[in-house]
Amino acid sequence: MRILAWGSTDVGMKRDHNEDSYLIREDLGLCVVADGMGGHAGGEMASSIAVKTIEEGVLEANALLDPTKVFEGAVEKDPVAKLISDCVRKACAAIYKKAQERRELQGMGTTTITVLFHGRHAFIAHVGDSRAYLMRDGRILQLSEDHSLVNEQLRAGLITEAQAKQSRFKNIITRSVGFEEDVAVDIIAVEAREGDCYLLCTDGLANLVKDEEIQEISGDNFLRRAPELLIDLANKRGGDDNVTVVVAYVDELGGSSAQAA
User: Fold this and answer.
1) Does the predicted model carry a pTM greater than 0.85?
2) Pairing relation of β-strands 186-191 and 121-127?
3) Mean pLDDT over residues 159-177, rounded?
4) Measured between alpha carbons, how far is residue 240 from residues 3, 11, 71, 233 in Å?
5) Which has the minimum average pLDDT: 7-21, 168-182, 215-229?
């Protein structure tokens, strides 16, 4: 499985600094998006520590990620699933430790959404309200579930979809990396197919651009332009937050395609 990936980040129209970070390592089959919180220094540092720690953890596990070694058991017991969960938890501990060392950083944290391609699967690790989408056969599916107050209210039937979009609590998340020393990590495993497109984004996109629009823009343009075009649309609609988008295209044959070019 060969992965082609592109990403972009923007400060948006209302903020004076960018607390998002992202990472693309096509050679590792790894993409990470993180949306920091905790003020100028704290948010930037938290998201940066997250992507760096996850990258280092995957690099250290190169032997485990040997593409010739395919795990034959239940996918939820695949060592790769544990690997990315452990990497996010290590990032959590590292951010928390840094915050305890400097008073001005206390309370900082970050969301993380990570996809690691290995064998026949895309393994996704998720904390917070940054999202992972799968675009396949002309359709889009949100893979991750927001760890947010509004989503909890929505699931409980306390508010409607329309109310959720307008809620003043939509930026309150119920789980983050680094706010406490450890964190529960959601793991999603998807059997990857040639032609799949996985899109990772911060809530700066998801709050302003509909899922169907993400699918349309990604499907109607070269994928390398999708992050920039989606960010431009979010900014045209107010750009009230930092916006980060990463797309990863599964090209099992090892050659580029017209859609991915």
Assistant:
1) yes
2) antiparallel
3) 83
4) 32, 9, 44, 12
5) 168-182
Residue identified by tokens 């990590």 is: 185
pLDDT of amino acid 24? 98
- Residues 208, 115: Cα–Cα separation, whole Å: 23
Q: By CB neighbour count within 10 A (0-12 exposed, 13-18 middle, 19+ buried), where does 26 fall?
A: middle
Q: What is the DSSP string of 56-88?
A: HHHHHTTTTT-TT----S-GGG-HHHHHHHHHH
The sign one gets for the Cα dihedral 58, 122, 75, 92 is positive
Q: Where are the alpha helices (DSSP H) in 134-223?
A: 149-155, 161-166, 203-206, 211-220
- CB-based contacts of 235, cutoff 8 Å, min separation 6: 10, 12, 13, 243
Count Cα neighbours of 230 within 13 Å in the Cβ-side half-sphere: 39
DSSP string, 211-261: HHHHHHHHHHS-GGGHHHHHHHHHHHTT--S-EEEEEEEEETTSS--TTT-
Task: Of 109, 115, 106, 94, give the one whose Cα is nearest residue 52.
Answer: 94
Q: Dihedrals φ, ψ of 222, to 5°?
A: -60, 135
Q: Which residue has the tokens 């940066």?
A: 48
Q: Is the dihedral of CA 51, 56, 62, 65 positive or negative?
A: negative
Over range 181-191, report the average pLDDT.
96
Of 123, 52, 37, residue with least CA distance to 90: 52
All residues at 6 or more sequence positions from 72 whose CB lies less than 8 Å from its CB, including other chains: none
Sheet holding 131-136, edge to edge: 2-10, 243-251, 197-201, 131-136, 139-142
Decide: 43 and 179 in contact? Cβ < 8 Å: no
Domains of the chain: residue spans and CATH: 2-142+176-251 (3.60.40.10)
